[in-house]
């Protein structure tokens, strides 16, 4: 922390009545500064100084005087403010030097200072601060020609007491401050116009023999004319800022937007500004390089992400292909399974159909068995009935002559069919020898029927194969089927197989056989009764 003893006073500088100003040197570095000493004992003075210090710190920039530090004096009665030292002094010295320049250079430099002061004032106004004491003595100039605004001790709301204590600065105040005792940002603009007028011409625009006369001219707006060599644009800007009606004055933003002011700001580059621009350019280059590095890093990261995404995509595609192949295989297996199921269903349907057919055949067979059983029972009853034929009938049959109309005696077999068709009965004469032969045949038939009766309960197929050779005795009328078992001559000998055909004559109905007729079945009309 700096102390009063750290600085050596070189000389005292002109200052105001409220403070004393010295050019000092820091003993350690031999760097020169401005030391401003203000009263700091009374509360009113203390509050006023604290406001100025706070403003200088908050408004610190390239356009304002830099406050280095503060500390009390040896007695503790005053506050020492160490400020930036501007080598070329304040604007009053610059105005005197300015008059030695050629008119064209004065005009060009006039635009430069107009732009610099307006930019510095805009910095204050953008922070809602009015300088309120803008004059050449409060505008400091550096070695490179850049300016700094200083002395913010009065940068607060004015009152009547303040108005009475600013002797020596009234000639830079706007008309409304003198007439209406009112000050605002446009009042700073008016003061700027007066300063630029004085810079270009070397004299005050309201120049008079006394300060009172100057104030009177200000109130009446009796401003001097600018020289003819001053450009119309410069005249317009100065008159614009010094308009008696504060509502018609421009703002700092409006002045800075003027084409010539903008051009002057671009052209003017002090060594400090150039150095700052170099620093700014270097910082910008570093920033851009950092941004480029970050961008490159981001691009590399994105590229890696893209590669990883591509690998992941390829992996997903491979998995999808594998899934598709598995799905296709599963579909093939499913189709194969469906085909197998269809085959199984078809086989099941076929089996069901076969089962149904077999069941139908079983039922048919069962019906046939039932029918055959009934037929066998009927035959048994018939045999029993025949066994009970009266002996007189048998005797009658024996006595009946056998006419033997044919050379062959036909032996007939009654089939198991329940339908017996009767044929017309023919009476044949029999000789005594034939009768004996027939009796022997009948006895043989009875024995065979008896044997078959014993086997009646056997297998139906076997039963169907069995036959009973007999002569027709007593049957109801209808059709009768006969089967030729053998052909015999009337002498009892079998007919040989060389016989190609035979004739069967029964009850007047004649049928021709194929070949020898053995094993064939034929139907005849049967009229009922006894026929042989």
UniProtKB/TrEMBL annotation:
Pfam families on file: Pkinase (PF00069)
PROSITE patterns named among the record's database cross-references: PROTEIN_KINASE_DOM (PS50011), PROTEIN_KINASE_ST (PS00108)
InterPro entries: Kinase-like_dom_sf (IPR011009), NEK_Ser/Thr_kinase_NIMA (IPR051131), Prot_kinase_dom (IPR000719), Ser/Thr_kinase_AS (IPR008271)
Superkingdom field: Eukaryota
SUPFAM superfamilies, per database record: Protein kinase-like (PK-like)
Matches recorded under PANTHER family: CAMK FAMILY PROTEIN KINASE, SERINE_THREONINE-PROTEIN KINASE NEK1
Protein name in the entry: non-specific serine/threonine protein kinase
Species whose genome carries this gene: Streblomastix strix
Organism phylogeny: Eukaryota, Metamonada, Preaxostyla, Oxymonadida, Streblomastigidae
């Amino acid at each position: 922390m700096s102390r009063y003893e750290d600085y050596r006073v070189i000389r005292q500088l002109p200052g105001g009545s409220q403070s004393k100003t010295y050019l000092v040197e820091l003993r350690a570095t031999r760097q020169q500064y401005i030391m401003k000493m203000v009263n700091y004992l009374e509360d009113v003075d203390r509050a006023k100084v604290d406001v100025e210090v706070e403003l200088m710190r908050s408004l610190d920039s390239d356009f304002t005087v830099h406050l280095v530090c503060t500390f009390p004096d040896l007695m503790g009665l005053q506050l020492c403010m160490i400020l930036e030292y501007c080598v070329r002094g304040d604007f009053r010295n610059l105005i005197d030097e300015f008059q030695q320049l050629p008119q064209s250079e004065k005009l060009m430099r006039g635009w430069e200072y107009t732009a610099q002061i307006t930019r510095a004032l805009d910095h204050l106004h953008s922070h809602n601060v009015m300088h309120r004491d803008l004059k050449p003595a409060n505008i400091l100039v550096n070695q490179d020609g850049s300016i700094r605004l200083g002395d913010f001790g009065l940068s607060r709301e004015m009152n009547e007491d303040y108005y009475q204590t600013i002797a020596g600065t009234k000639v830079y105040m706007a008309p409304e401050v003198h007439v209406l005792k009112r000050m605002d940002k446009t009042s700073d603009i008016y003061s700027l116009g007066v300063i630029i007028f004085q810079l270009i011409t070397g004299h005050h625009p309201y120049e008079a023999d006394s300060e009172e006369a100057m104030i009177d001219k200000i109130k009446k707006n009796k401003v001097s004319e600018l020289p003819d060599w001053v450009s119309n644009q410069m005249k317009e800007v100065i008159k614009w800022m010094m308009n008696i009606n504060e509502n018609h004055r421009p703002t700092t933003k409006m002045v800075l937007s003027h084409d010539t002011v903008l051009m002057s700001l671009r052209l003017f580059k002090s060594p400090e500004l150039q150095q700052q621009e170099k620093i700014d350019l270097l910082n910008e280059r570093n920033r851009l390089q950092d941004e480029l590095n970050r961008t490159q890093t981001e691009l590399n990261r994105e590229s890696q992400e893209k590669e990883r995404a591509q690998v992941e995509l390829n992996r997903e595609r491979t998995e999808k292909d594998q899934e598709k192949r598995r799905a296709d295989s599963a579909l093939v297996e499913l189709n194969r399974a469906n085909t197998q199921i269809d085959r199984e269903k078809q086989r099941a349907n076929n089996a069901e159909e076969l089962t149904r057919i077999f069941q139908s055949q079983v039922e048919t067979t069962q019906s046939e068995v039932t029918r055959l059983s009934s037929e066998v029972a009927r035959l048994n009853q018939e045999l029993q009935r025949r066994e009970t034929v009266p002996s007189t009938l048998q005797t009658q049959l024996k006595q009946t002559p056998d006419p033997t109309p044919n050379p062959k005696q036909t032996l007939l077999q009654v089939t198991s069919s329940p339908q017996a068709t009767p044929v017309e009965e023919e009476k044949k004469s029999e000789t005594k020898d034939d009768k004996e032969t027939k009796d022997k045949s009948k006895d043989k038939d009875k024995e065979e029927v008896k044997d078959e009766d014993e086997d009646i309960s056997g297998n139906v197929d076997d039963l169907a194969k069995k036959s009973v050779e007999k002569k027709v005795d007593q049957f109801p009328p209808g059709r009768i089927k006969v089967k030729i078992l053998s052909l015999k001559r009337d002498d009892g000998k079998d007919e040989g197989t060389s016989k190609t055909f035979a004739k069967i004559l029964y009850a007047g109905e004649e049928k021709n056989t194929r070949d020898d007729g053995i094993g064939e079945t034929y139907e005849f009309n049967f009229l009922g009764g006894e026929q042989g």
